[in-house]
Structure formats: C-alpha cells, structure tokens
Amino acid sequence: MGVDGRLRAVVGLAQAMAAASTPRDSVRAAARGARVALDGSFAAISAWERERGRLRVLVNEGERRAGEEEFPEDESYPVHDFPEITEFLHERWAGGGGPHAWVESAVGDRPGRRGAALRRRGRGTCVVAPVVLSGRAWGELYVARDEGLPDFDADDAEFATVLAAVVAAGLAQNERLEEARRLAFTDPLTGLANRRAVDMRLDEALEEHRRTGAVVSLVVCDLNGLKKVNDTLGHAMGDRLLERFGSVLSLCGAILPGALAARLGGDEFCLVGVGPSADEVVRVTEELCARAAELELGEGVACGVASTGDPIGPVKSSRRLFRLADAAQYKAKAARSPKPVVAGRDTAVVRMADAAAEAASGERRRFRGRP
Asked: Is 328 helix (H, G, I), strand (E, B) or coil?
C-alpha cells in the first residue's frame, strides 16, 4: 500500500470510528480499520485494567481461530506475561519520545509470549502499538498476519504508531459522547436514571406491551420527611437521605430483571418494570417500603403501583400509567401506609385517577372556548 493508500486508510479509520453509535461498534471499527490499513489477517483492541493487572481483549476482528470470540466476555492476560507492555505502561515516553509500535515474529527470540501465541494460532508476524489517552497507557492495538504472508517491518511499525494515535483520538471522542449521553439520562445526585430516561423507557415498554402483551409496571415513590431533614439538619443531610434511598431503590429494583430505577426530581422516585408480573412488582415494592422505613434519616416512603397486569383498564399512553401510580401514591401518603397502594386492587384509585384526567380535559376544553 503506497502513501496515498495509507492516507486513505487513516481517513477511513477515523470516519468509521466517528460513525460508530456505541463503544462496541467503535472498537470494532478501530480493529477492522487498522487490520485493513496494515493488510493484516487479524486485529485486536485490548484495554489495560490497572486494578486487575491484566490486559483485557475488547474485540477480535478478522480471521479468528478457535476460542477467539469477536467480543469476548473475559479474555484477558496478566501483564507480567508480556514484559514489553510493562515498559510502555511505565510510560517510558514521558520524556517526550512518544510511544512506538514494534514487530514480533513467530520465529523471533524476543522475551515474552508473543512468538508462542503466534505459532499456536498459525500466524507468522504481528505488530503491537500502544494506545495512549490523556498521556497514559490505555491499552494496545494488535495486528497479525497468517503464516506464509510477508512479515511486518519497521515501516509497518511506524504506520501502526500513527494508526494507534488515530484510534486513541476516536476512543476519546466516543468516551466524551458516552459521557454526554450518560449525563443526559442520569440524575447527578443519585446516579439513577432521570425523568427523560423514564419517559423513553415507558414509551418503549408500552409499545412492547401492545405488541406482545408484556406486563408493564410503574412504581411511584414519595420520600417522606425530606423537608424536615433539610430544615433541621441542613441540605447536605437531605442530599444524603436522597442518595441513601436511591441506593435502596436500586437494590430492590435489581430483584426485577431489566427494571429501571429513577429519580423524577425533588423527593420523587420511580421504578419501571417490564416483564415481571404485577404480584412480583408489588412484593418488591413492599420490600422497598420496609427498607426505607429502616433508614436512619427520613420517615419512610409512600409508594403507589400501577401495572397492566392488574384490572386498571386499557393503558394507551405512559400518562395514564403515571396518573394511576400517582393517585395510588397520593392515597398511600395520605393514609401514611407502611405498604404500597396498588391501582386496580384499590378500585377507588382508578376512579380517582380517571376523574382527575376527565377534569383536566374539561379544563382544556373550556380554555379553548368550547363548551
């Protein structure tokens, strides 16, 4: 591949990573682009997990051998098996030299296990390039050729160094985008989902309910005693109560497969369940109420439950599910109930929610000038 070809390969790699919609797509695009650019048979991207002392493989791309999955769940290697990695992990380029790729061969005599791994998998040569983010070793780009193909050379190593820099830039951009997405759908205090995430999840869940009949449940929680904590102990303690209850909600929500735990705002929280029966959701909500009552701050929680698995009538939109759960929660709070109130099992709640909806509709009609 000439200079123009390599330039086009670099541009193609950058564009493919920029177009990736998920971190998984991004690392796959990086491995594929680097493999094509270096005319390799196989490529992998691995991340350095400092806390584990291991190099974890994120993606295997190209001609994979037995045991090499495209996205392995836990393919990792202790860093002491690869002495040359330890060199770049100690950031030997800190003096300004910069990280450089190197070439290994199945018949070479360099220390470490690269040569043995090449021979075991029927590959003849590889080039390894450190991937550096924010001045720190992040992981490595690895590209190999099968036996019988030309060995990589010094020019290939220099080109791999350039490709690793492009990969690092793409990964950094994707990390920033992921952080922005996370912030857009996360409550900053508790780390739970926010109202925007709940609305999206409920819309998707109700579409699934219409298509397959899946049970959709909504638990709305109002944390009791937050204002008293804020007024008497200060807002820092109020924030602590919110965080502690958020942890309890997350813990209980984990009992329901695929449940979404969220803070709607202020002292209001919710749990969205898709799939588990109404009875399961009620049992989890009872557990939530019991645990909240044991918190060292606050005065427990008032919970209302609305589920398509109960006799609540048709649910055409998330608004009705919210009205029902809100009405049930309102009744639980008024009665200072230690257990959740469940719409449908308490028929007065359904009547109250629907009456409120009708009243609101009437107000809108009068406002628009219609009788």
From this structure: helix
Neighbour count for residue 15 (Cβ, 10 Å): 12
Q: How far is CA 142 from CA 257, 310, 351, in A?
A: 37, 55, 64
The torsion defined by the Cα of 222, 223, 227 and 230, in degrees rounded to 10, comes to -140
Residue whose token pair is 């002495």: 83
Tokens of 145: 């050729």
The candidate with the shortest Cα–Cα distance to 88, out of 164, 9, 17, 148, is: 164
Backbone angles phi, psi at 55, to 5 degrees: -105, 115
Q: Indicate the pairing of strand 341-342 with strand 301-307.
A: parallel
Half-sphere exposure of 235 (CA within 13 A, CB side): 2
Length of the chain: 371
The predicted model gives 348-357 an average pLDDT of: 78
CA distance 174 to 21: 9
pLDDT tens-digit profile of 23-59?
Answer: 889 999 999 999 999 999 999 999 888 767 788 999 9
- 78/32: higher pLDDT: 32
At 144 the pLDDT is: 96
Q: What is the pLDDT of residues 175-218, one digit of tens each?
A: 777 767 677 788 888 888 899 999 999 999 999 999 999 999 99
Please determine, for residue 146, whether its predicted confidence score (pLDDT) is greater than 70.
yes
Residues linked to residue 221 through DSSP beta bridges, in sequence order: 269, 303
Task: Using alpha carbons only, give the angle 319, 324, 325 rounded to the nearest 5 degrees.
Answer: 100
Edge to edge, the sheet with strand 341-342 lists: 260-265, 268-274, 216-223, 301-307, 341-342
Residue for token pair 């049930």: 328
With beta carbons less than 8 A apart as the criterion, state whether 315 and 206 touch: yes
**Cα 75 from Cα 223, distance rounded (Å):** 44
pLDDT tops 90 at residue 108: no
Q: Which percentage of the chain shows pLDDT scores above 90? A: 51
Helices 154-184 and 3-19: angle between axes, nearest 10 degrees: 20
Which residues, 6 or more positions from 54, have their beta carbon under 8 angstroms from its beta carbon? 76, 77, 78, 79
Task: Residue 107: name the closest of 157, 148, 159, 64 by CA.
Answer: 148
- Report the chain's mean pLDDT, rounded to a whole number: 86
SS3 state of residue 179: helix
Is it the case that residue 225 has pLDDT exceeding 50? yes
